[in-house]
């Protein structure tokens, strides 16, 4: 995993004049056991907040913000247990529809091995054809939560009909329990294998909701308008010092005539 905020200097980014399409965005949320891990923040009255609950909040922020930018973007939802399956199949630009879909999203308690992303890619490829016929663009945002289970998939290398973004929430590395670096590398490989436009992948093992929200805000960027991820220098750190302000000593203050 690369250090947060690292970047490489490249030539200035330019955007060629092309037609930009409205997006159909399929959000696929990991509902496996590790989505129940508690975040490092608490809710009202100290109630623990799980990864899945934070993910739901972050998605609502994303939907509201994306529709503020362009009310013609649409959203659908899938869940990932051992394989991906539809949760809300119809794409909609109604916030109420997104709220209802997220409210009905619950953890999977069934035993799970490695997650297989093949079905997710099949769903996305099928929907991408329908979106393209309507002069729209399909994007998949996968939110993955497993620290010891690398995703698997089978997909033709020359079939790239949709864009894939990934946010990976994981535990700290532990040689006896998990291997988040290996999982992250597998997710990078999957993204590069299937993504039509520039796909972004971000990870966090901090357990902080605000980091998740910040990463979701970066994914507001339209796939056709993106620079390569190495050139992304947002979001800026809020901990950086503000420019120092020179203060004039009181005895040097100049009186103002009345």
UniProtKB/TrEMBL annotation:
Source superkingdom: Eukaryota
Q: What are the UniProt keywords, alphabetically?
A: Cell cycle, Cell division, Chromatin regulator, Cytoplasm, DNA damage, DNA repair, Mitosis, Nucleus, Ubl conjugation pathway
Provide a GO CC annotation, any one. Answer: BRISC complex
Q: Which CDD domains match?
A: vWA_BABAM1
Task: Say yes or no: keyword Phosphoprotein present.
Answer: no
* Family matches, as Gene3D superfamilies: von Willebrand factor, type A domain
The alphabetized list of GO BP terms reads: cell division; chromatin organization; DNA repair; positive regulation of DNA repair
Localisation per UniProt entry? Cytoplasm; Nucleus
InterPro entries listed in its UniProt record: BABAM1, vWFA_dom_sf
Coiled-coil features, chain-numbered ranges: none
The UniProt similarity line reads:
Belongs to the BABAM1 family.
Task: Tell me what this protein is called.
Answer: BRISC and BRCA1-A complex member 1
């Amino acid at each position: 995993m690369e250090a947060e905020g690292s970047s490489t200097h490249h030539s200035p980014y330019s955007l060629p004049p092309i037609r930009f399409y409205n997006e159909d965005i399929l959000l696929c949320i990991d509902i496996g056991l590790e989505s129940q891990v508690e975040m490092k923040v608490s809710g009202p009255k100290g109630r623990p907040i799980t990864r899945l609950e934070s993910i739901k909040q972050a998605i609502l922020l994303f939907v509201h913000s994306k529709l503020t930018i362009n009310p013609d973007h649409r959203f659908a939802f899938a869940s990932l247990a051992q394989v991906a399956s539809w949760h809300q199949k119809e794409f909609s630009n109604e916030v109420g529809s997104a709220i209802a879909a997220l409210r009905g999203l619950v953890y999977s308690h069934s035993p799970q091995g490695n997650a297989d992303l093949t079905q997710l890619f099949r769903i996305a490829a099928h929907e991408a054809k329908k979106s393209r016929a309507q002069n729209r663009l399909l994007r998949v945002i996968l939110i993955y939560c497993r620290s010891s289970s690398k995703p698997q998939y089978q997909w033709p290398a020359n079939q790239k009909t949709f864009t894939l973004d990934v946010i990976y929430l994981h535990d700290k590395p532990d040689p006896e329990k998990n291997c988040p670096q290996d999982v992250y590398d597998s997710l990078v490989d999957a993204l590069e294998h299937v993504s039509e436009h520039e796909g972004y992948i971000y990870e966090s093992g901090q357990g902080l909701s605000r980091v998740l929200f910040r990463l979701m805000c970066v994914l507001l960027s339209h796939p056709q308008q993106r620079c390569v991820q190495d050139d992304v220098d947002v979001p800026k750190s809020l901990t950086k010092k503000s420019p120092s302000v020179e203060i004039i000593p009181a005895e040097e203050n100049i009186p103002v005539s009345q």
